[in-house]
Amino acid sequence: MSEQTHKTVIAVDGPAASGKGTFAKALADRLGYAYLDTGSLYRIVAWATLERGGDPTKLEDVKTSLPLIKFPLGPEVLKNEDLRRPEVDEAVPKVSAIPEVRAIIRAYQAAFMKDPPGNAPGVVLDGRDIGSTIAPNADVKFFVTADAEERARRRFEQQKDSNPGLTKEMVLKDINLRDEQDRRQAALALHPASDVCVLDTTKAKPDETLEQGLRIVKAKLSVNDNSSGNSSVNKKKIAPKPPGFRL
Length: 247
Ligand code: C5P
What we know:
Bound molecules: cytidine-5'-monophosphate
Largest sheet: 5 strands, parallel
Structural class: alpha/beta
CATH topology of the largest domain: Rossmann fold
CATH superfamily of the largest domain: P-loop containing nucleotide triphosphate hydrolases
């Protein structure tokens, strides 16, 4: 049984290819917290629906994939490379627009926050609606962003070897389309709320962003860095949460 009744929650939101996943994962590692890439849950539903030949816009087709979202899922499921295929990229905003899908994934996220793997003292969740909907009382909220051109450049660098026909223009078009689809959903915060810390990664290296984030976390909570590899987190909060601020 968990010794703590409250787990520290860090919300990391932001648009596609903003660097939020890299930041959130590294932050969780340094703090000894459990990490959840919530986009991968939506991707599992989209991928499984396509595998069955279903239409990702139709609830009756998508419904059969929902039992897959059973807590806890192992890394072999969450990190499956197939979830990053271009056809999944295209289908995922369609399944994520279905309220029944969001409800199931919301329940998964609640279970993760309550009972994190390894009984970690805290969790870092990355996604689109974490600070606004999933964990509105999160201890720290980040919004990680970057210019669309820079996000497209990064995605292009990641994908060009596996997809020789790809151009930067195609990737930029896809990023703009995904931003537009995400923006159409009221639940998905593509703009930071007032109580979040904005990290603009356009010109920053991943380790600079991580250090900025850690400084913010340390200022808000009394936590020990895990850079030595020893997980140690002091859950005692030293001060009430300050109002949100921009860097
Ligand atoms: O973060 P990632 O690019 O993997 O997210 C894929 C898609 O999943 C997003 O474009 C969005 O449509 C959906 N998503 C969501 N809510 C989240 C995370 C992702 O609707 N919390």
